[in-house]
Specification:
Elements: H1 2-24, H2 31-70, H3 77-115, H4 118-124, H5 129-168, H6 172-182, H7 185-211, H8 216-249
Length: 250
């Protein structure tokens, strides 16, 4: 029964994704609601992204400095930290924060609407609930994650500069020059693609778990839990796949 249920779930998710792409490119478009969701996603995540990214930049720099200093390569610290932040640390931290914050919110919100039959009422009234509730959230999370990653990278590098400056009293211009020479366009471009995939995974998984929830209030809690756990799992899977692909490209 477990294998059968898993196969049924995979088929349901596949149909859900196909329905998403069909509805996304079918008018009318919910442009205003997409903007509202973009604002909500950025507003809900900005403080956590700022705080976590700043601390991550400080901690990673502080932990890396003794190892480089033991080899007499402390001058490589800005290059090491910038590559780690842009290639992996920034997207991963932002994705996990958004999976926890946004995933639970989307799953619980759509789940509560499902169990209270608000979605059924929207279908009866002629409104397209899938387009208004699902497509807008998935598109917004896919668009906003790259922007949040760019912001998180900048904040993490600022935290790193504070630590580097405390170690060697180097100037900001020198730090920026070393960072800019160590980061390639491929690093930035791949980071944005990775962030967009993270956003799509968070949105589609969270909306699926909430849109198909049942069993009353218990189902709402289960939908929120599935949204967070599954989103985080897929973030690591996508990160691993992208890492293998980029290693082939480089």
């Amino acid at each position: 029964m477990t294998i059968k249920k898993a196969l049924i779930d995979v088929a349901s998710i596949y149909k859900f994704i196909i329905e998403f792409f069909k509805t996304t490119f079918s008018p009318p478009y919910e442009g205003r609601e997409i903007l509202n969701q973009c604002f909500a996603i950025g507003n809900k995540s900005l403080f956590l992204v700022t705080f976590t990214s700043f601390l991550a930049g400080i901690v990673f720099t502080k932990q890396s400095q003794p190892s480089l200093a033991s080899f007499g390569a402390e001058s490589w610290l800005p290059s090491l930290v910038s590559q780690a932040v842009v290639r992996s640390l920034g997207p991963l931290i932002t994705g996990l924060i958004c999976a926890g914050k946004l995933g639970s919110n989307m799953g619980a919100e759509l789940g509560s609407m499902k169990v209270t039959e608000q979605i059924d009422a929207m279908e009866v009234s002629g409104t397209r609930p899938f387009s208004y509730l699902v497509v807008t959230r998935v598109v917004a999370s896919t668009l906003m994650l790259p922007l949040l990653v760019i912001y998180a990278d900048g904040v993490a590098l600022m935290g790193s500069f504070i630590m580097v400056n405390s170690f060697s009293d180097s100037g900001f211009q020198l730090y920026i020059n070393e960072v800019s020479t160590s980061i390639t366009y491929l690093d930035v471009f791949s980071s944005m693609i990775k962030a967009a995939l993270f956003g799509f995974a968070i949105g589609i998984i969270s909306c699926y778990s909430g849109y198909n929830s049942d069993n009353g209030t218990i189902g709402v809690g289960k939908a929120a839990n599935i949204a967070v756990v599954a989103s985080m799992t897929f973030i690591f899977i996508i990160d691993l796949i992208m890492l293998q692909f980029l290693n082939l490209v480089r």
